[in-house]
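Justification of resources, computational component.

The compute hours requested in this renewal are based largely on the per-chain cost of generating structure records like the one below. Each record pairs the submitted sequence with a full structure-token output. That output is archived, and it is also reused by downstream analysis tasks.
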Amino acid sequence: MYVKGVNLGNWLVLEKWMSPALFDGTTAEDEYYLPRQLSPEVYEARIKIHRSEYITERDFATIKRIGLNTVRIPVPYFIFGDRPPFIGCIEELDKAFSWAEKYDLQILIDLHTAPLSQNGFDNGGICGVCKWSQTPEEVDFVLNVLEKLANRYGQRKGLFGITPINEPITEEMWTSMGVTERYPAVDPELAKGSAPNTLEFLQDFYTKAYKRIRGGVAEDKYVVFHDAFMLHAWKDFITQPKFKNVMLDTHQYLMIAEAMGCEQTLDGYIEYIQEHFAKEIAKVQEYVPIVCGEWCLFNSCAVGKDTKGGQSVLNGIDLTEDKQKMDAETQKHLYEQLASAQLAAWREGSGYFYWSYKLLLDTVNDPNWADWDSWDLGKCVDQGWFPIGG
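The structure output for this chain reads:
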């Protein structure tokens, strides 16, 4: 099956920039500190309302209607409700499987966060902290979560596969992104000792995770390893005979291409997509199925200002001054061309998942979020930027 999918980001794993109103009344920048700044009653009400309204059965019907066949669902390490003060969300995932099976969709379960974080990003649960791999008991906790997920959903018709951990960061990306500066820690003492994961640790973890997951899932389901931002580091590891039905997941964003020196023009993006995204994915596909698990149309050219690698007002970037406003027709052409080029690149592999299905940003009335619609697949389809059927 060629994967044509979308991420249900910000549903069960919160990201402030995708739904800022959820964080109203707090200074929290991530999910770790939100319940620590709200009363238990307010936190519970806010989370339960968000989860019940953000994604519903209707969304699965829409995803099917626009021609997609798979959803990637980020879930937190506290999904089973055993890590207070967080509230579990296994019932929501149960519902998602029922909806997916009704509309003949598949689900990739993506463990998106780990205790003490695997990357220090806001989407890793706590900004500026990256100590999970240094904490053996928390590594074991994650392995147990994966085993429970595999046992619960491993025989379901709607299961595509399970990703053991999302975006575990390694040295090169840790340095190039300047993680500790981009995502400053609230508590320096808690962040003390934070460091990127080693390839050796990840290979050991992936081996253990594979055994736990494979013990519960049907043979035709995938175990999907994220490349840890090291696309070509996995050939000898992932082609070992002990691994059956495995897939590599890579995340390729134009904003990261910009940070790597890609020219912020249509021609510059197209050249980068063809020379880097397409060719590199084709090389990997020769020895293992590869999927682009996250990508989108967002780019600084359409915004009209250098976003410094996709940074926003939440990172202290002013996106309202000295902005070169692009007219709607030119912007539509830009997005159409970038959609076509990136979809062609992913066809060199085994498919893609767009990030993300929806956001709750007011891109009309809040000038700081103007031209950020391209993160939202629903808006991209509605405005003709993304082709029905992908």
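The chain is about 40% helix and 10% strand. The mean pLDDT is 96.
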